[in-house]
Amino acid sequence: MTTDRLQKVMAHAGIASRRASEDLISAGRVTVNGEVATLGRKVDAASDDIRVDGERINVDTDLVHVMLNKPQGIITTVDDPKGRPTVVDLVTLNQRVYPVGRLDADSEGLLLLTNDGDLTHRLLHPSHEVEKIYVALVGGIVKARTVDALLAGVELEDGLARPRAVEVLESKHDQTLVQLTLTEGRKHEVRRLMEAVGHPVKRLARVAFGGVELGDLRQGNWRFLTHQEIARLHAATEGRSGPAERRRHGRDERRNRGRAQQRASDADRHADRRADGHDGHDGGRR
Fold first, then answer.
1. In this predicted structure, what is the pLDDT of residue 247?
2. Distances, alpha carbon 106 to alpha carbons 198, 225, 238, in Å
3. Residues 164 and 124 sit within 8 Å (Cβ to Cβ)
4. Nearest alpha-carbon partner for 142 in 202, 207, 189
5. Which residues participate in catalysis according to the annotation?
6. What residue ranges in the chain does DSSP mark as E strands?
7. What are phi and psi of 143, to 5 degrees?
8. CA 74 from chain center: how many Å?
């Protein structure tokens, strides 16, 4: 285990300059393994959980995280015995990186590649319900009832499939552009879903994964993820940007709404008593 001062590790990883890193630590904004860090603390960049403002940051410079805009016809694998071009052929790095999940040869769009095995495992594990967003060009005009049917769930040969969200982006010339948000990683899931409701996929692209968006990256090109994007991926596996967090926020909103309604009701009763000639001080009774 190799350790070094926290501010030096942060600066070396490009999080901030050493002086700015010291300021972040002094302000109590940095934690190490759940504890608020202090200046001079030594850390192991390879194993310690280091966070700024609650967001996990990557300080292990041996870990590489990249995004590729995969074109059609490229195989999502490290090595193809048939000699076909693979996604790894498009990423010119000295380090060996591996795809996070798969995109079919006929599909295109956002593909993450990394040598961070732990993060890959968490991103792909079904229990974390990490969201992936796809845009599909399908045949026919997708109507509201079809969207409702997709959201209710469609029985496929390997069980019920239910997108988290479905949105019709555009319809014209007997074809529709549909956006689907999924949390599972079943093979050909989008294609099978749309086929099952009578709208075969003509073209399919993934545009987001775990809160990281493809943006304007040109097809066939790749780039390193930013520290913020890596933190977003970690957050997606911890429920802070996924369904568990949304459910928690929903409960909080309902609780706050209920309290607001109760206060409003109390205020109305108080106003009624004043209108009846009472001053509202009734010995604590309601």
1. 46
2. 20, 25, 31
3. no
4. 202
5. 104
6. 4-5, 30-32, 35-36, 42-43, 50-52, 55-56, 65-70, 98-99, 108-114, 132-139, 154-156, 159-161, 165-172, 175-182, 201-209, 212-213, 222-224
7. -95, 170
8. 24
- In this prediction the pTM is 0.74
- Phi first, then psi: give them for residue 196, nearest 5 degrees: -65, -25
Quickly tell me which residue has 């205020």 as its tokens: 267
CB atoms within 10 A of CB 97: 21
* Residue of 101, 108, 140 whose CA lies nearest to 219: 108
What confidence tier does 238 reach under pLDDT thresholds 50, 70, 90? confident
For the chain, domains (ranges, CATH) are 4-56 (3.10.290.10), 63-128+212-248 (3.30.70.580), 131-209 (3.30.70.1560)
Residue with tokens 């059609």: 72
